Amino acid sequence: MICHILGGVKLDPIAEELLKTVRKELGYREKKGEHTKFGHWYADRLQDPQYRDAPWCDMFIAWAADKAGVSDYVGQFAWTPSHAVWFIKKDAWTQRPEPGALVFFDWKGGKSYKGVDHVGIVERVEGKKIHTIEANVDRVWLKRKVRETDKVVGYGLPRVVKANASPDEIRATDQPFPSGERSDAREGSPLDVLGSPLALLVLMVATTVLVSLRLAGRRRGHHRRFRWPWNAPSSTPSSSTPPSRRAAEPLPPEIPRIRTRAARPETGASRTTPTVTEPRPGPVATKTRPPAARTPTRRRPYEPRE
Questions:
Q1: For the chain, what is the radius of gyration of the CA atoms?
Q2: What integer is the mean pLDDT of 286-292?
Q3: Which of 44, 82, 259, 258 is nearest to 177 (CA)?
Q4: Which of 54, 193, 235, 250 has the fewest CB atoms found within 10 Å of its own CB?
Q5: Adjacent-strand bridge partners of 137
Q6: Cα dist. 34→46, 52, 59, 121, 305 in Å?
Q7: Cα–Cα nearest to 132, from 111, 101, 154, 107
């Protein structure tokens, strides 16, 4: 492996190619509406337009890694915490800076990958300070910066990713969000899950239980239904009146006959004078105590007066 010297430090080929590519973009400025060519490239790659005007510090690194041909070892992300986790999972995470390493910042001073909100590339190290190349800094620029390390969460090492990965483990890209569906991808069917042995076993057990419950319900006579139309019992004199209402009503008094003419007037009586027939004494309705209502607390409107 041929390495070049930068400030007394040997550069591996991945760091050399990555730094060569990003130096060519120094001085790039964000366009109107927060659009960048890096965001457009990333959005077209994922077929998702939301990235065109998104924060572009990590999308620039993805673009540069693709141009340099080292995406397999640098990773391609738009969300910085996800990018940090990618290096951690590949055992390529360290607290010591070196040229070509990706540096992850938390401006609040936290030390967890969950708080990472910015990323850059280390160009060289001088004492306790690091010289970096970063995108989306000072609001709109891609430029060099000199940083203290108190805001650094950690460093991702592409060379270690390459050293730890076998050819079968290397993938062309790792994305925090799913990319667009391939046009030649076969559409899945809900019935595909039935092909597994476990699913077939569960289906057979469920069918057996349902059939057993249904047969048992028939033997016990469950789910008995009322016939329609349903007829109430007719043991009382009037079936058309609800039983509760009949219990509360008093017996109706005998209706008196008022002012009826005699068929033959008596001798000496005027033909124009009507004969009044007094009603026969009958049971007084108000003196009859009605049957007790079904509800003891209900007020009895027909209670006789003392």
A1: 48
A2: 55
A3: 82
A4: 235
A5: 141
A6: 19, 8, 13, 22, 92
A7: 101
Among 3, 22, 45, 19, which residue's Cα sits nearest to residue 172? Answer: 45
pLDDT at residue 183, as a whole number: 33
For 147, phi then psi, to 5°, come to: -120, 145
* Angstrom distance (rounded) from CA 230 to CA 62: 77
Name the amino acid, one letter, at 62. Answer: A
Under the banding of pLDDT at 50, 70 and 90, the label for residue 10 is confident
> Taking the model in full, what pTM does it have?
0.55
Respond yes or no on whether the N-terminal peptide bond of residue 81 is cis (omega within 30° of 0).
no
Q: How far apart, in whole angstroms, are the C-alpha atoms of residue 252 and residue 282?
A: 11
Per residue, the 3-state secondary structure of the chain, as one string, reads CCCEEECCEEECHHHHHHHHHHHCCCCCECCCCCCCHHHHHHHHHHCCHHHCCCCCHHHHHHHHHHHHCCHHHHCCCCCHHHHHHHHHHCCCEECCCCCCCEEEECCCCCCCHHHCCEEEEEEEEECCEEEEEEEEECCCEEEEEEEECCCEEEEECHHHHHHHCCCCCCCCCCCCCCCCCCCCCCCCCHHHHHHCHHHHHHHHHHHHHHHHHHHHHHHCCCCCCCCCCCCCCCCCCCCCCCHHHHHHCCCCCCCCCCCCCCCCCCCCCCCCCCCCCCCCCCCCHHHCCCCCCCCCCCCCCCCCCC
* Selected residue with higher pLDDT from 298 and 18: 18
pLDDT tens, residue by residue, 105-153? 999 999 999 999 999 999 999 999 999 999 999 989 999 999 999 999 9
